[in-house]
Write a structure and sequence with these properties.
Elements lengths: L3 E6 L3 E5 L13 E5 L1 H12 L3 E4 L1 E3 L2 H11 L9 E3 L6 E5 L8 E5 L23 E7 L7 H16 L3 E5 L9 H14 L2 E5 H7 L8 H11 L4 E5 L5 E4 L6 E3 L12 H15 L6 H17 L10 H10 L9
Parallel strand pairs: 1-4, 1-9, 2-7, 5-6, 9-10, 10-11, 11-12
Antiparallel strand pairs: 2-3, 7-8, 12-13, 13-14
C-alpha cells in the first residue's frame, strides 16, 4: 500500500467575497474562505476517497493557520506544510457579478510565503519510491516567482526519480504572466506529463490560435507536441475531449447544471478525472470513464458557491447513473 495516492504542491490564499453580489467598495463585511487550485483538487480527491497530501509554505500566524486547518478539516494531509515566521499569506478578493456585470478577481499575493519557497525546502524524504502514486502540479505555481519555478521543477525531478506518475493542469492566469512566458514556463512540465489537463481557451491563447479553432484541431496540436501524454481538453459547456497516446479522440458532453459558482470548476474536473484514472484498472473504456467522472464532478461543483468542492463520491455516482436530472427537494 502506498501512503498517498496523490501529492500536490501549490499556494492557497485567503479569499474575501462580499455577500449578496455587492461590490468590494460598498460592502462593510466579506465572507472568508481558503482558496487555491491545488488545495481545491486535494479536497475533492479526498472527498472522493483518495489519500492526498498537500505541500505548501505558509506564514506561521493566525492567517496561515486558518488556511492549513481549513484544508486539513477536509481530510487532506497537511503534515508537510513548511512554516515560516517571515513573508506573508497571499490574499485575493472576488467580486461576484451577474450579466451584464462580470465577476472580477483581485490578487494581493506578491511576496507571499509560498512564492518565496526554495527548492532546498522540499522534503526530499517524501519523494521516494512507493511514497505516492502521482504528483500533480499546475501552471499557477511556477508563475508565482522564479524561485518557486525552480522549486516546482525540482519537485517534478524528484517525483520522476521516485517513479511516480505526473499530471499537469495548464491553468493559465493572465494576471500572473503573459502568454509567451506561460508557454515557455509550462512547456517542460507538459513535456513530462503522463496526464495533461488543459482548458481549450488557454491552449488557443498560449499557442496564438484563432478563437474559432475547433476542439479537434486544438487536441491535434497538443497530441503532436506532447505525444507521451493522456490529454483531457476541457470545453466548458461542451464537456471535454480526450485521447490517450496513439488512441482515438473521445468526446464527453457536459451535464446540464445551473450556475451558482464558477470558481474551482476546473479543479473539480481534474479531481474527477484523476480519481477514475487512478482507481480503474487498465481497460479500453478507462479514458471515457475518467472524462465522464470529470464532467460530472465539475457539474456538481458548478452548483456550489466558493472554492471548496463540498461534494461526495455518492452524488457523483448518482449523477452519472441517472444522467441529467431536475432539481428537487430530497427528504
Amino acid at each position: 500500500m502506498t501512503p498517498y495516492d496523490v501529492v500536490t504542491l501549490g499556494e492557497t490564499m485567503l479569499k474575501f467575497t462580499p455577500p449578496n453580489l455587492k461590490r468590494l467598495e460598498q460592502t462593510p463585511v466579506c465572507e472568508l474562505e481558503a482558496g487555491g487550485s491545488e488545495s481545491n483538487l486535494a479536497i475533492a480527491l479526498t472527498r472522493l476517497g483518495l489519500k492526498v497530501l498537500w505541500l505548501s509554505r505558509l506564514t506561521d500566524n493566525p492567517l496561515g493557520r486558518f488556511i492549513e486547518r481549513a484544508i486539513a478539516a477536509q481530510g487532506v494531509d497537511t503534515s508537510r506544510v513548511i512554516w515560516t515566521d517571515a513573508d506573508r499569506v497571499g490574499l485575493y478578493f472576488v467580486e461576484e457579478g451577474k450579466t451584464p456585470r462580470h465577476s472580477r478577481v483581485f490578487y494581493d499575493r506578491k511576496n507571499s510565503a509560498m512564492s518565496q519557497m526554495r527548492a532546498s525546502e522540499l522534503p526530499v524524504d517524501l519523494f521516494l519510491p512507493g511514497k505516492a502514486r502521482l504528483l500533480h502540479l499546475s501552471g499557477i505555481t511556477p508563475a508565482l516567482s522564479p524561485t518557486l519555478a525552480v522549486a516546482t521543477q525540482r519537485a517534478l525531478h524528484l517525483a520522476q526519480e521516485a517513479g511516480w506518475q505526473f499530471s499537469f493542469d495548464l491553468n493559465y492566469r493572465h494576471q500572473l504572466w503573459a502568454p509567451a512566458a506561460a508557454l515557455a514556463g509550462c512547456s517542460p512540465f507538459m513535456e513530462a506529463a503522463h496526464i495533461l489537463l488543459a482548458p481549450i481557451n488557454d491552449v488557443r491563447l498560449l499557442y496564438e490560435l484563432p478563437s474559432t479553432t475547433l476542439p479537434e484541431q486544438v487536441l491535434s496540436l497538443l497530441r503532436e507536441r506532447y505525444p507521451q501524454a493522456t490529454i483531457a481538453l476541457t470545453l466548458g459547456k461542451d464537456g471535454a475531449l480526450g485521447c490517450e497516446p496513439g488512441g482515438l479522440p473521445i468526446h464527453q458532453p457536459a451535464f446540464p447544471a445551473e450556475e451558482v459558482g464558477r470558481l474551482g470548476i476546473g479543479d473539480a474536473f481534474a479531481a474527477g478525472f484523476l480519481y477514475q484514472y487512478l482507481t480503474l484498472p487498465p481497460s479500453p473504456d478507462k479514458l471515457a470513464q475518467a472524462l465522464l467522472w470529470g464532467v460530472a464532478t465539475a457539474a456538481i461543483k458548478y452548483t456550489i458557491p466558493g472554492d471548496i468542492p463540498w461534494l461526495s463520491r455518492a452524488e457523483v455516482e448518482s449523477l452519472i447513473q441517472q444522467g441529467a436530472i431536475e432539481s428537487k427537494l430530497v427528504r
